Amino acid sequence: MSTNTRQSPEIVTFGESMGLLTAKDTRGLEYAASLDKSFGGAESNLAIGVSRLGHTSGWFGRLGQDPIGTMILKAIRGEGVDVSRARLSDAEPTGLMIRENASGKSSVHYYRKLSAASAMTPDDLDPDYIAGAEILHVTGITAAISPSGLSTVEAAIHIAKQAGVKVSFDPNLRLKLWSAEQARPVLLRLAEQADYFLPGLDEMKLLYNERDEQKIFERLSALNAVSIVKGGPDLTYVLVNGTLTEVPYFKADHVLDTVGAGDGFCAGFLSGLLKGYSPQEATRLGNLTGSMVIQAVGDWEALPTWEQVEAKLNNVAHVER
Which segments constitute the Carbohydrate kinase PfkB domain (predicted)? Predict the structure, then answer.
């Protein structure tokens, strides 16, 4: 456990949060009459999820000094997440993503080039803030948005390792940001420094350029990390010291929106670790929070509270009135 005189949240994370506009019309963005406004970002989604599950979390990053940026900052703060290290920039805008669901096919269009977040540098890091946390969580998205973003991730990991803070890494491979060939050496290098590695099985097939799942697990076993591999057939794989355990999913009654499921899983898993659970028990909690997220619409809005999780575990009946 790390010690520091300054008060830091249990989990610290950082990255790009963007405005999110969603076309409600199933004819697609071109013909949509209106757009719903929200925001999203893997790291801020996770921070909100951890906060709702009863633990302290901090998120920081660069946002534009614009209406979207201030909306995002206020909303994250309103969810109980510490945003004291976040910055609003006069020089660059907040990134934007627009989602459409045309003819049953979901697509996302990104407007994030030269965004405020892509200008993040290691100078934006508060070493004491990171060193005072229990877990630093980073993703491959921040590493992909710009060379300075990657430098910031590497610097943050170095600070955490020096301070004895555990590092959680979700590769979050985004092929709209870079190709698998570009991402492979970078993400695998970061994975080697993680204490908790949280990839998807499909991601590992691309990153290892390997279809044989047994060979993938053999390579993962060579890492020093506890590896939690999402996306098995109705289960999540837990790899600890070379031992593979399969943790079954929780059945979702009705799937409405799969966006945010991975972030919901990671929030549940890391919260489980903070509660003192074993990696297998924490994975079970992650599976439950992930299944609850996909039964409602939104990147982060559907993330469950600890009370909701406990009710689900205890099968408490909902009293409508």
Answer: 10-305
